[in-house]
Amino acid sequence: MSVCSYIQIRGSGLKTAKDLCECRVIHEDKVTKARKTSLSPEITEKLCQTFKALGDNTRLKILWALEKEEMCVCDLAAMLDVTESAVSHQLRLLRTLRLVTNRREGTILYYSLADMHVSQLVQVALEHVQE
Amino acid sequence: MSVCSYIQIRGSGLKTAKDLCECRVIHEDKVTKARKTSLSPEITEKLCQTFKALGDNTRLKILWALEKEEMCVCDLAAMLDVTESAVSHQLRLLRTLRLVTNRREGTILYYSLADMHVSQLVQVALEHVQE
DNA sequence: TGAATATATGAACAAACGCTCATATAGTAA
DNA sequence: TTACTATATGAGCGTTTGTTCATATATTCA
Predict the structure, then answer these.
(1) Quick check: B78 and A3 CB within 8 A?
(2) How many domains does chain A have?
(3) Is the pLDDT assigned to residue A65 strictly greater than 90?
(4) Do B52 and B90 form a contact (C-beta atoms < 8 A)?
């Protein structure tokens, strides 16, 4: 796909492909360099999903709680004032991204953070918003 | 609002408020403790928005590029293959969250990262997804 | 002044998201 | 086995999000 396929041309009516490529690129070197140092689509997508997972009120509260101590689904649901179903759905997402793990004790599943990364991310973000 | 207002009761038809509160809380101490150590709604919301800002493909690519060097709107648009309008909208969001700043040189606005936090966040998240 | 350029903004719309409800599954105990 | 509990899953639905298009604003220069 052409670099400029989607560049918006002010006041343009119907344009040919050639016209569409008469786009503005002020610093072609910067664009080229940025494209070369860009992350792979796969890594970008994974990064994105990780941040997106943290970018939801319910999930963030879940992670914040699990940072303190492991909890089961129904306790989290009670704490958050949402259905256990909602919590279960969110935990599945967090599990898929390897942000949380669980251990079983009878019928109860205790969830906890999978590693230190979540804590570190929240810590840095906290610094940012509190400045 | 009651702690249990929204807890899903399996097979429940119409229930009174009292019935709805016959919910399952396995570890009441954990729930109470988690509620006490929870972040304020304001901080939670800000944290959330910050992560949400990073949790989008376009914005993440913008931030990744700006980490290397400052760029203007139209260059970012060319790099990302989206309209300048789209970039401008996203930059406004990032500006609002104090993740990026800009400096003017004539009619051109050069955008760059506002502080180290974005870099730190991306670094930690990268470690997580690459493990 | 007026034209040209770079960016910002508002409306509209398709796609993605998070919730609830209903139901299914897994483990425990009678 | 059957009953009960804790969790998981799929469908449906209203809300949010990210994009484009059209237009507005701001700066420079003739």
Answers:
(1) yes
(2) 2
(3) yes
(4) no
